[in-house]
Design goal:
Layout: H1 5-20, H2 27-34, H3 38-50, E1 54-57, E2 63-66, H4 75-83, H5 106-121, H6 126-131, H7 136-142
Antiparallel strand pairs: 1-2
Helix pairs in contact: 1-2, 1-3, 1-4, 2-3
Length: 151
């Protein structure tokens, strides 16, 4: 799975908002907090607003805030808001793929990949990341012998 710059920025911005929750943060403050380009961040925040994850408040004291407490916002929801479905195969959803011959069982692998990604990002909230207290099954994945090794 490839996490896009848009997805990475969205999660990082949401974490800053979660740390400040329920207070409002300006786009400028968010950009400075996470060392991101403001214009790109504003486009990401617009996606998060359209998805109902953040709300914008206008005015001198304006900015952005989460629409729900950090314990109710998952990493998966944020990634979908800015990048769409978590796993795609040539523009199709994994269950929409079909192959013949020696590759006929490949759709099962693609569905399993999506399920594995969901098991991590849909079960990890902003509050989990902020506190460092990830769900046990996710913590366990980070302790596997080759988890931190590039391949």
């Amino acid at each position: 799975m490839q996490i896009s710059a848009r997805g990475d920025y969205a999660v990082r911005a949401a974490l800053s908002l979660a740390a400040a929750y329920p207070s409002v943060m300006s786009a400028q403050a968010l950009a400075a907090d996470q060392d991101m380009p403001r214009k790109f961040l504003e486009a990401v925040l617009a996606d998060l607003r359209r998805a109902g994850i953040v709300r914008a408040q206008r005015g001198a004291e304006g900015g952005y805030t989460l629409t729900q407490p950090p314990r109710e916002v998952t990493i998966g929801a944020i990634l979908r808001a800015v990048d769409g479905p978590l796993a795609g195969v040539r523009g199709l959803r994994p269950e929409e793929t079909a192959y013949e011959g020696s590759a006929e069982n490949l759709p099962r692998v693609w569905v399993a990949v999506r399920a594995a990604v969901r098991e991590v990002v849909d079960e990890t909230t902003l509050a989990d990341v902020l506190s460092g207290k990830l769900p046990a099954h996710i913590r366990k994945l980070t302790t596997l012998p080759d988890a931190w090794q590039p391949r």
